[in-house]
Write a structure and sequence with these properties.
The protein is α+β, with helices and mostly antiparallel strands and 478 residues long. It is built from ten helices and four strands; from the N terminus they run αααββααααββααα. It is found in: Cell membrane; Membrane.
């Protein structure tokens, strides 16, 4: 009875310490929730859209394939994304190491003068002596409450997010190279039209000069015709400037610096159309690397919350050591210098002035941010994809109307040429009819370039051939 009585206060104290250590985290919860794909307008029965990871090869241009390969190999921004992935993977190794026993060795040698009035009696008191310790230490924090596992899961999720980010950067880079290449092709086609416009206006000016000399026109018509020639040359020079800028952009994207990477100037007629979705894909969220990355960040933030809650519970360690210790280095390795110890260690957070709850509130806020960032990324993806689908369909209709208008303009031009040949019209009528043809050709070039650019943007918006593994796909689709 006396034995139990003496130990009862110790048990009550231990229980009190345990309850104090396990401080409450009640009332701290995330307030954000995921918005369902259906609520955002993605139909569950829509057809899936699939494309290859090298989708740009659909356009059938070997030079474009080579440029994108160079960009994916040497672009600094893509290398930065890969470095971030490597760093995230290293963090997972650090988190994994915390779940395993830690072993370290130590060797200490000390020369010390001992106080004559200190703890040690003579002959040690007042003397100067050497002491040494050679020891192996083992520390293993038992993960009873899942703190280390949560930290590891968070690091793994962050690594998955970094991997998806690297894939998103790859897709964006390939799309930017393709768009710049198509822009250069548009400029080249517009240059051909501009050169013909300049030649046509020079011919028109010569005819007006002849008519003025013959007394059929006045100086007013001559000055008007002369003014159109510098305008045509200015438009030609502006297009040549744009061509240089487009080539510089491609050189920067492909990490070529000041070297011009274009060996053969592209034209729009050399490209094949690429397959694109006609409606929002049902699996859009799983096909987007940025959506997958955002979802993995939510997973990481959720595990950080679990880790923060585990901080409220005690830390339980198994500590052991074994080694040699002696007063006098000459006896360090002698029999009798052995020492060892083993036992548990418990650390309880009794009073932390609200630090643990503040930390949990911060991690919960991070979770809310991650969830809302995911929702925003989904909204942006749906908006972007829907816009590109609408543009693609509209451009197709515009091209149909433009082809009809160009056919009519070319028909009028043919009639003007025939009338001129039989003496029923002047060459000025021919040049005027050709002006309409050239205007339609410029519009046709712009629409063809927009169609290609929209195809690239739509492929990228619909995932760009991103292929997540099974776990990533399930995470993105939640």
């Amino acid at each position: 009875m006396i034995w139990l009585f003496r130990r009862a206060p110790l048990g009550a104290l231990a229980a009190a310490l345990w309850l104090a250590g396990c401080a409450s985290y009640q009332g701290i919860n995330a307030s954000s929730t995921f918005t369902s794909p259906q609520a955002m307008g993605i139909p569950g029965t829509a057809a899936k859209f699939e494309t290859t990871t090298d989708w740009w090869k659909q356009f059938g241009d070997e030079q474009l394939d080579k440029l994108i390969a160079q960009a994916l190999e040497g672009n600094p921004n893509l290398k930065i994304a890969r470095a971030r992935l490597a760093r995230a993977q290293a963090v997972t190794e650090v988190a994994d190491a915390a779940t395993l026993p830690q072993v370290n060795g130590s060797l200490d040698a000390t020369r010390q003068k001992y106080s004559a009035n200190g703890l040690f009696p003579p002959p040690i008191a007042g003397s100067t002596r050497d002491s040494g310790t050679l020891q192996l230490n083992v520390n293993w924090e038992l993960d009873f409450f899942g703190k280390h596992q949560a930290a590891l899961d968070s690091a793994l999720s962050a690594a998955q997010a970094a991997q998806a980010d690297a894939q998103a950067a790859r897709i964006m880079l390939a799309a930017n190279v393709a768009r710049s290449y198509f822009q250069l092709a548009r400029i080249n086609d517009q240059l051909a039209v501009a050169r013909r416009t300049l030649a046509q206006r020079a011919e028109s000016l010569k005819l007006v000069q002849d008519r003025v000399n013959a007394g059929l026109d006045t100086n007013l018509e001559l000055r008007q015709s002369e003014g159109s020639l510098p305008e045509a040359r200015q438009q030609l020079e502006a297009l040549q400037e744009q061509a240089v800028m487009a080539q510089n952009a491609i050189a920067a994207l492909t990490a070529q610096g000041n070297r011009q990477p274009i060996a053969t100037q592209p034209t729009l007629a050399g490209f094949k159309p690429a397959a694109t979705p006609r409606e929002l894909p049902a699996d859009l969220l799983a096909q987007r690397a940025d959506i997958t990355a955002a979802r993995w960040r939510v997973e990481a933030a959720g595990k950080d919350v679990v880790n923060a809650k585990a901080q409220f519970y005690p830390n339980i360690n198994i500590v052991a050591f074994a080694g040699l210790n002696s007063l006098g280095l000459g006896r360090l390795l002698n029999t009798g210098s052995e020492q060892w110890g083993v036992g548990p260690a418990v650390r309880l957070p009794i009073f932390d002035a609200g630090r643990l709850r503040a930390n949990l509130r911060g991690k919960t806020a991070d979770l809310d941010v991650a969830i809302e960032s995911y929702n925003a990324a989904v909204l942006d993806a749906i908006h972007e994809t829907a816009d590109q689908i609408a543009s693609s369909q509209s451009i197709a209709r515009q091209q149909a109307e433009q082809r009809d208008a160009q056919a009519a303009a070319e028909g009028a031009y043919d009639i003007a040429v025939q009338r001129y040949k039989v003496g029923l019209g002047t060459y000025l009528n021919v040049l005027a009819a050709e002006t309409s043809v050239l205007s339609q050709r410029r519009l046709g070039v712009d629409l063809a370039a927009r169609a290609l650019d929209t195809q690239v943007q739509l492929i990228r918006a619909a995932g760009g051939g991103y292929r997540a593994d099974a776990s990533a796909a399930s995470v993105a689709a939640r």
